[in-house]
Amino acid sequence: MSYAHTLVPVEESATLRRTVAHAVDSAIEAADGDARITFASVLSADSTQLPGSELEASAEDLLDRIEIWAEEDAGDAELTIDTVILGADEYLFSPQDMARVIGAHAVSTGVDRIVLDPEYDPGAGQPLLEPLKSDLSGDDRFDVEEAPVEHPRRSARIVAPSSASRFIGTFVLSFVFYQLIGGFAGLFDIVTGAATALIAAITLSQVTFSRRPQLVGSFVRLGRWFVFAPVLLWEILIANLQVAAVILDPRKSIDPRMTRVHAAVWGVLPVTTLANSITLTPGTLTVRERGQDLYVHSLLPVSREGLFDGGLERWVRFVFYGRRSMRIDSPKDRGDAEVLQSPEDGDDAGGEDA
Protein backbone atom coordinates (compact mmCIF):
# COMPACT_ATOMS: atom_id res chain seq x y z
CA MET A 1 0.00 0.00 0.00
CA SER A 2 1.27 3.49 -0.81
CA TYR A 3 1.24 6.38 1.63
CA ALA A 4 1.76 10.02 0.75
CA HIS A 5 1.90 11.57 4.21
CA THR A 6 3.13 9.94 7.45
CA LEU A 7 2.63 11.36 10.97
CA VAL A 8 4.90 10.34 13.87
CA PRO A 9 4.05 11.46 17.45
CA VAL A 10 7.37 11.83 19.28
CA GLU A 11 8.71 12.13 22.81
CA GLU A 12 12.04 11.27 24.40
CA SER A 13 12.38 7.49 24.64
CA ALA A 14 14.95 4.73 24.31
CA THR A 15 13.54 3.72 20.92
CA LEU A 16 12.96 7.19 19.46
CA ARG A 17 16.01 7.24 17.18
CA ARG A 18 15.15 3.83 15.71
CA THR A 19 11.52 4.86 15.26
CA VAL A 20 12.55 7.98 13.31
CA ALA A 21 14.80 5.92 11.04
CA HIS A 22 12.05 3.36 10.40
CA ALA A 23 9.42 6.04 9.74
CA VAL A 24 11.66 7.87 7.24
CA ASP A 25 12.71 4.72 5.38
CA SER A 26 9.18 3.32 5.20
CA ALA A 27 7.71 6.69 4.16
CA ILE A 28 10.12 6.92 1.25
CA GLU A 29 9.50 3.31 0.20
CA ALA A 30 5.70 3.58 0.49
CA ALA A 31 5.32 6.87 -1.40
CA ASP A 32 4.11 7.13 -4.97
CA GLY A 33 6.23 10.13 -5.85
CA ASP A 34 7.28 12.73 -3.28
CA ALA A 35 7.02 11.56 0.31
CA ARG A 36 6.02 13.72 3.25
CA ILE A 37 6.51 13.08 6.97
CA THR A 38 5.44 15.12 10.00
CA PHE A 39 6.86 14.70 13.49
CA ALA A 40 4.46 15.89 16.21
CA SER A 41 5.21 16.63 19.86
CA VAL A 42 2.07 16.53 22.03
CA LEU A 43 2.02 18.58 25.24
CA SER A 44 0.13 16.71 27.95
CA ALA A 45 -1.96 18.06 30.84
CA ASP A 46 1.03 18.47 33.12
CA SER A 47 2.83 20.85 30.78
CA THR A 48 2.77 24.57 31.42
CA GLN A 49 0.99 25.12 28.08
CA LEU A 50 2.52 28.56 27.67
CA PRO A 51 4.07 29.74 24.39
CA GLY A 52 7.80 29.98 24.93
CA SER A 53 7.66 28.04 28.22
CA GLU A 54 10.40 25.64 29.24
CA LEU A 55 8.46 22.51 28.27
CA GLU A 56 7.42 23.91 24.91
CA ALA A 57 11.00 25.02 24.28
CA SER A 58 12.11 21.49 25.16
CA ALA A 59 9.65 20.11 22.61
CA GLU A 60 11.01 22.47 19.97
CA ASP A 61 14.57 21.34 20.72
CA LEU A 62 13.50 17.72 20.39
CA LEU A 63 11.79 18.38 17.06
CA ASP A 64 14.87 20.22 15.76
CA ARG A 65 17.01 17.23 16.67
CA ILE A 66 14.57 14.81 15.03
CA GLU A 67 14.51 16.92 11.86
CA ILE A 68 18.30 16.59 11.61
CA TRP A 69 18.05 12.82 12.10
CA ALA A 70 15.36 12.56 9.42
CA GLU A 71 17.43 14.55 6.92
CA GLU A 72 20.39 12.26 7.55
CA ASP A 73 18.23 9.14 7.12
CA ALA A 74 16.56 10.44 3.94
CA GLY A 75 19.86 11.18 2.20
CA ASP A 76 19.19 12.22 -1.41
CA ALA A 77 15.61 10.93 -1.45
CA GLU A 78 12.73 13.34 -2.06
CA LEU A 79 11.19 13.79 1.38
CA THR A 80 9.35 16.76 2.85
CA ILE A 81 9.92 16.96 6.61
CA ASP A 82 7.54 18.95 8.85
CA THR A 83 7.37 19.39 12.62
CA VAL A 84 4.48 20.55 14.79
CA ILE A 85 3.59 20.98 18.48
CA LEU A 86 0.06 19.86 19.36
CA GLY A 87 -2.03 20.46 22.47
CA ALA A 88 -0.45 23.75 23.51
CA ASP A 89 -3.82 25.52 23.57
CA GLU A 90 -5.93 22.96 25.44
CA TYR A 91 -5.88 20.64 28.43
CA LEU A 92 -4.99 17.07 27.42
CA PHE A 93 -5.36 14.56 30.21
CA SER A 94 -6.03 11.07 28.87
CA PRO A 95 -4.95 8.88 25.93
CA GLN A 96 -8.38 9.57 24.45
CA ASP A 97 -7.72 13.32 24.51
CA MET A 98 -4.37 12.82 22.81
CA ALA A 99 -5.86 10.49 20.21
CA ARG A 100 -8.48 13.11 19.43
CA VAL A 101 -5.88 15.86 18.91
CA ILE A 102 -3.50 13.65 16.91
CA GLY A 103 -6.36 12.28 14.80
CA ALA A 104 -7.80 15.75 14.12
CA HIS A 105 -4.41 17.01 12.95
CA ALA A 106 -3.94 13.93 10.80
CA VAL A 107 -7.28 14.42 9.05
CA SER A 108 -6.81 18.18 8.57
CA THR A 109 -3.37 17.74 6.97
CA GLY A 110 -4.15 14.72 4.80
CA VAL A 111 -2.15 12.15 6.78
CA ASP A 112 -2.81 8.60 5.62
CA ARG A 113 -0.50 6.75 8.04
CA ILE A 114 0.50 7.20 11.69
CA VAL A 115 3.63 5.49 13.03
CA LEU A 116 3.89 5.06 16.81
CA ASP A 117 7.08 4.68 18.83
CA PRO A 118 6.70 1.46 20.91
CA GLU A 119 7.83 3.38 24.01
CA TYR A 120 5.91 6.58 23.26
CA ASP A 121 4.79 8.33 26.46
CA PRO A 122 4.48 12.15 26.63
CA GLY A 123 3.68 12.05 30.36
CA ALA A 124 -0.09 11.68 30.55
CA GLY A 125 0.21 10.00 33.93
CA GLN A 126 -1.08 6.58 32.82
CA PRO A 127 -0.16 3.78 30.36
CA LEU A 128 -0.58 5.39 26.96
CA LEU A 129 0.47 3.42 23.90
CA GLU A 130 -2.16 0.68 23.73
CA PRO A 131 -5.24 2.86 24.43
CA LEU A 132 -3.84 5.54 22.11
CA LYS A 133 -3.25 3.00 19.37
CA SER A 134 -6.72 1.53 19.89
CA ASP A 135 -8.46 4.92 19.68
CA LEU A 136 -6.51 6.00 16.59
CA SER A 137 -7.18 2.68 14.86
CA GLY A 138 -10.90 3.35 15.12
CA ASP A 139 -10.58 6.03 12.42
CA ASP A 140 -10.54 4.49 8.93
CA ARG A 141 -9.22 7.68 7.29
CA PHE A 142 -5.64 6.67 8.11
CA ASP A 143 -3.69 3.55 9.04
CA VAL A 144 -1.92 3.12 12.36
CA GLU A 145 1.15 0.99 12.98
CA GLU A 146 3.73 0.49 15.70
CA ALA A 147 7.32 0.87 14.59
CA PRO A 148 8.93 -2.61 14.50
CA VAL A 149 12.11 -1.57 16.30
CA GLU A 150 14.14 -3.44 18.90
CA HIS A 151 13.94 -2.36 22.50
CA PRO A 152 17.33 -1.70 24.07
CA ARG A 153 18.44 -4.29 26.57
CA ARG A 154 18.33 -3.10 30.15
CA SER A 155 21.17 -4.51 32.16
CA ALA A 156 20.59 -2.65 35.43
CA ARG A 157 21.38 -4.76 38.43
CA ILE A 158 18.25 -5.77 40.34
CA VAL A 159 19.59 -8.21 42.92
CA ALA A 160 22.16 -6.75 45.33
CA PRO A 161 24.73 -8.81 47.22
CA SER A 162 23.39 -10.30 50.42
CA SER A 163 24.48 -8.70 53.68
CA ALA A 164 23.51 -8.72 57.34
CA SER A 165 22.45 -5.06 57.24
CA ARG A 166 20.08 -5.66 54.29
CA PHE A 167 18.62 -8.73 56.02
CA ILE A 168 18.12 -6.95 59.36
CA GLY A 169 16.77 -3.82 57.68
CA THR A 170 14.18 -5.79 55.70
CA PHE A 171 13.20 -7.79 58.79
CA VAL A 172 12.72 -4.69 60.94
CA LEU A 173 10.74 -2.82 58.27
CA SER A 174 8.47 -5.83 57.65
CA PHE A 175 7.93 -6.50 61.35
CA VAL A 176 7.09 -2.88 62.18
CA PHE A 177 4.73 -2.62 59.20
CA TYR A 178 2.98 -5.85 60.21
CA GLN A 179 2.49 -4.59 63.75
CA LEU A 180 1.17 -1.23 62.55
CA ILE A 181 -1.39 -3.00 60.37
CA GLY A 182 -2.30 -5.50 63.09
CA GLY A 183 -2.51 -2.89 65.82
CA PHE A 184 -0.14 -4.60 68.29
CA ALA A 185 -3.00 -6.88 69.33
CA GLY A 186 -0.93 -9.30 71.44
CA LEU A 187 1.46 -12.22 71.47
CA PHE A 188 -0.14 -13.84 68.43
CA ASP A 189 0.56 -10.76 66.29
CA ILE A 190 4.15 -10.60 67.56
CA VAL A 191 4.82 -14.25 66.68
CA THR A 192 3.10 -14.13 63.27
CA GLY A 193 4.70 -10.76 62.56
CA ALA A 194 8.15 -12.14 63.30
CA ALA A 195 7.50 -15.17 61.08
CA THR A 196 6.25 -12.98 58.24
CA ALA A 197 9.17 -10.58 58.60
CA LEU A 198 11.61 -13.50 58.57
CA ILE A 199 10.13 -14.82 55.32
CA ALA A 200 10.24 -11.33 53.80
CA ALA A 201 13.85 -10.86 54.87
CA ILE A 202 14.93 -14.22 53.42
CA THR A 203 13.20 -13.66 50.07
CA LEU A 204 13.41 -9.89 49.58
CA SER A 205 16.44 -8.54 51.43
CA GLN A 206 18.57 -8.52 48.27
CA VAL A 207 16.05 -6.40 46.31
CA THR A 208 14.69 -4.11 49.04
CA PHE A 209 17.65 -1.73 49.35
CA SER A 210 19.61 -0.33 46.42
CA ARG A 211 22.43 0.56 48.83
CA ARG A 212 23.56 -1.19 51.96
CA PRO A 213 21.67 0.41 54.89
CA GLN A 214 23.72 1.97 57.67
CA LEU A 215 22.35 0.90 61.03
CA VAL A 216 22.98 4.13 62.95
CA GLY A 217 22.08 6.39 60.03
CA SER A 218 18.87 4.44 59.36
CA PHE A 219 17.68 4.74 62.95
CA VAL A 220 18.53 8.44 63.01
CA ARG A 221 16.55 8.99 59.82
CA LEU A 222 13.67 6.90 61.18
CA GLY A 223 13.62 9.16 64.24
CA ARG A 224 13.45 12.21 61.99
CA TRP A 225 10.52 10.63 60.18
CA PHE A 226 8.65 10.39 63.49
CA VAL A 227 9.30 14.10 64.00
CA PHE A 228 8.18 14.93 60.44
CA ALA A 229 4.95 12.88 60.56
CA PRO A 230 3.03 15.16 62.99
CA VAL A 231 4.29 18.22 61.10
CA LEU A 232 2.87 16.81 57.87
CA LEU A 233 -0.41 15.89 59.59
CA TRP A 234 -0.66 19.45 60.93
CA GLU A 235 -0.06 20.90 57.45
CA ILE A 236 -2.75 18.59 56.06
CA LEU A 237 -5.20 19.72 58.76
CA ILE A 238 -4.53 23.42 58.14
CA ALA A 239 -4.86 22.97 54.37
CA ASN A 240 -8.17 21.12 54.82
CA LEU A 241 -9.53 23.98 56.90
CA GLN A 242 -8.39 26.55 54.33
CA VAL A 243 -10.05 24.72 51.46
CA ALA A 244 -13.19 24.06 53.50
CA ALA A 245 -13.46 27.76 54.34
CA VAL A 246 -13.50 28.64 50.65
CA ILE A 247 -16.08 25.95 49.89
CA LEU A 248 -18.40 27.03 52.70
CA ASP A 249 -18.11 30.78 52.13
CA PRO A 250 -19.48 31.78 48.69
CA ARG A 251 -17.88 35.22 49.03
CA LYS A 252 -14.43 33.67 48.78
CA SER A 253 -13.09 32.63 45.40
CA ILE A 254 -10.45 30.21 44.28
CA ASP A 255 -7.42 31.24 42.24
CA PRO A 256 -6.05 28.11 40.51
CA ARG A 257 -2.61 28.47 38.97
CA MET A 258 0.15 26.25 37.67
CA THR A 259 3.44 26.86 39.47
CA ARG A 260 6.99 25.60 39.31
CA VAL A 261 9.36 25.12 42.25
CA HIS A 262 13.01 24.19 41.92
CA ALA A 263 13.35 22.19 45.12
CA ALA A 264 16.51 22.19 47.22
CA VAL A 265 16.39 18.42 47.75
CA TRP A 266 18.51 15.86 45.92
CA GLY A 267 17.95 12.23 45.04
CA VAL A 268 14.94 10.17 43.97
CA LEU A 269 13.55 9.40 47.44
CA PRO A 270 13.77 12.98 48.85
CA VAL A 271 12.21 14.49 45.72
CA THR A 272 9.45 11.86 45.71
CA THR A 273 8.79 12.43 49.41
CA LEU A 274 8.46 16.18 48.88
CA ALA A 275 6.23 15.76 45.81
CA ASN A 276 3.91 13.35 47.63
CA SER A 277 3.82 15.55 50.75
CA ILE A 278 2.75 18.51 48.60
CA THR A 279 0.02 16.41 47.00
CA LEU A 280 -1.24 15.18 50.39
CA THR A 281 -1.99 18.75 51.49
CA PRO A 282 -5.32 19.87 49.97
CA GLY A 283 -5.01 22.86 47.67
CA THR A 284 -1.76 21.75 46.03
CA LEU A 285 -1.14 18.90 43.57
CA THR A 286 2.23 17.88 42.13
CA VAL A 287 1.49 17.07 38.50
CA ARG A 288 5.01 16.55 37.21
CA GLU A 289 8.58 16.13 38.37
CA ARG A 290 11.61 16.84 36.23
CA GLY A 291 14.75 16.41 38.27
CA GLN A 292 14.46 18.96 41.07
CA ASP A 293 11.74 20.93 39.24
CA LEU A 294 8.26 20.25 40.60
CA TYR A 295 5.24 21.47 38.61
CA VAL A 296 2.50 22.06 41.16
CA HIS A 297 -1.12 23.09 40.63
CA SER A 298 -2.23 25.38 43.47
CA LEU A 299 -5.88 26.12 44.15
CA LEU A 300 -5.69 29.06 46.57
CA PRO A 301 -3.33 32.01 47.07
CA VAL A 302 -2.66 30.85 50.63
CA SER A 303 -1.73 27.38 49.34
CA ARG A 304 0.65 28.98 46.88
CA GLU A 305 2.23 31.14 49.57
CA GLY A 306 2.83 28.11 51.76
CA LEU A 307 4.40 26.25 48.85
CA PHE A 308 6.73 29.14 48.02
CA ASP A 309 7.65 29.61 51.69
CA GLY A 310 9.07 26.06 51.56
CA GLY A 311 7.83 24.69 54.87
CA LEU A 312 7.45 21.11 53.63
CA GLU A 313 10.68 21.35 51.64
CA ARG A 314 12.53 22.41 54.79
CA TRP A 315 11.20 19.46 56.81
CA VAL A 316 11.96 16.94 54.04
CA ARG A 317 15.54 18.23 54.06
CA PHE A 318 15.58 17.71 57.83
CA VAL A 319 14.54 14.08 57.40
CA PHE A 320 17.20 13.22 54.84
CA TYR A 321 20.05 15.62 55.55
CA GLY A 322 19.72 16.73 59.17
CA ARG A 323 19.01 19.95 61.06
CA ARG A 324 21.70 22.08 59.41
CA SER A 325 20.05 21.68 56.00
CA MET A 326 16.96 23.51 57.29
CA ARG A 327 18.91 26.79 57.14
CA ILE A 328 18.70 26.90 53.34
CA ASP A 329 16.50 29.77 52.13
CA SER A 330 12.94 29.19 50.97
CA PRO A 331 12.17 28.74 47.24
CA LYS A 332 10.75 32.29 47.21
CA ASP A 333 13.91 33.78 48.73
CA ARG A 334 16.15 31.76 46.40
CA GLY A 335 14.18 32.85 43.32
CA ASP A 336 13.28 29.20 42.67
CA ALA A 337 9.48 29.65 42.72
CA GLU A 338 7.42 30.83 39.76
CA VAL A 339 3.75 31.20 38.85
CA LEU A 340 3.37 29.86 35.35
CA GLN A 341 -0.28 30.02 34.36
CA SER A 342 -3.84 30.46 35.52
CA PRO A 343 -6.73 28.85 33.61
CA GLU A 344 -7.82 32.30 32.38
CA ASP A 345 -4.38 32.95 30.89
CA GLY A 346 -4.36 30.17 28.34
CA ASP A 347 -3.06 32.47 25.63
CA ASP A 348 -0.63 34.38 27.87
CA ALA A 349 2.97 34.15 26.84
CA GLY A 350 4.67 35.08 30.07
CA GLY A 351 5.04 33.84 33.61
CA GLU A 352 4.92 35.74 36.86
CA ASP A 353 7.84 35.40 39.23
CA ALA A 354 6.99 34.75 42.83
Average pLDDT metric: 85
Number of separate domains: 3
The gross shape turns out to be globular
List segments where confidence is low: pLDDT < 50 over at least 5 consecutive residues: 46-52, 346-352
What distance separates the N and C termini? Answer: 56 Å
Element-level helix/strand string:
EHEHEHEHEHHHEHEEHHHEE
Judged by helices, strands and strand pairing, the structural class is alpha/beta
Explain this structure to me?
With 354 residues, the protein is of the alpha/beta class. It folds into 3 domains: 4-146, 3-Layer(aba) Sandwich (Rossmann fold), CATH 3.40.50; 164-205; 215-339. The protein is built from 11 helices and 10 strands. A 5-stranded parallel beta sheet has the order 3-2-1-4-5, with helices on both faces. The protein has a 5-stranded antiparallel beta sheet with strand order 7-8-6-9-10. Helix 1 (16-30) links the parallel strand 1 (5-10) and strand 2 (35-42). Helix 1 crosses helix 2 (54-74), helix 3 (95-108) crosses helix 4 (129-137) and helix 7 runs antiparallel to helix 10. The longest helix is centred in the middle third of the chain and has 34 residues, at 215-248. The N and C termini lie far apart (56 Å). Residues 46-52 and 346-352 have low confidence and may be disordered.
